[in-house]
Amino acid sequence: MQYLKVKRINVFLMNMAKVKILQEVPRRLETDDDWTLHLQKVVYHYEDGTSDDGYRFIWRRPDGSLQAARGQARIPGEEELLSLYHQAKEEGLFN
User: Fold this and answer.
1) Could you say which of 25, 57, 83, 91 would form a disulfide bridge with 73 (CB–CB 3.0 to 4.6 Å)?
2) Pick from 56, 57, 47: which is nearest to 14 by CA?
3) CA nearest 27: which of 75, 69, 68?
């Protein structure tokens, strides 16, 4: 009789989401590459049928497409963060 040695592997399963952008405010940084940083009001629609409202920072490429990533967008500094926040507040993003 043969025995198979089986290694148990724990797998983290993520509940994937589709994101609907409700509103966004851009911030063009003083760089040569024309990328823009956006603060977005969004709804996350999950595969299991649930959804969550929220906000996210995300980069938009020069061609207008989003830089989707599993991690967070890096905010270069306080000036950019506060500028996006104040612009978003003025445009009613938090209402």
Assistant:
1) 57
2) 47
3) 75
Q: How far apart are CA 71 and CA 14, in angstroms?
A: 13
- pLDDT tens digits, residue range 34-63? 889 898 888 889 888 998 888 888 989 999
pTM, to two decimals: 0.69
* 94 Cβ contact list (under 8 Å, min separation 6): 41, 88
Q: Which residues pair with 52 in a beta bridge?
A: 44
Closest C-alpha among 58, 40, 45 to residue 16: 45
Between CA 38 and CA 29 the distance in angstroms is: 11
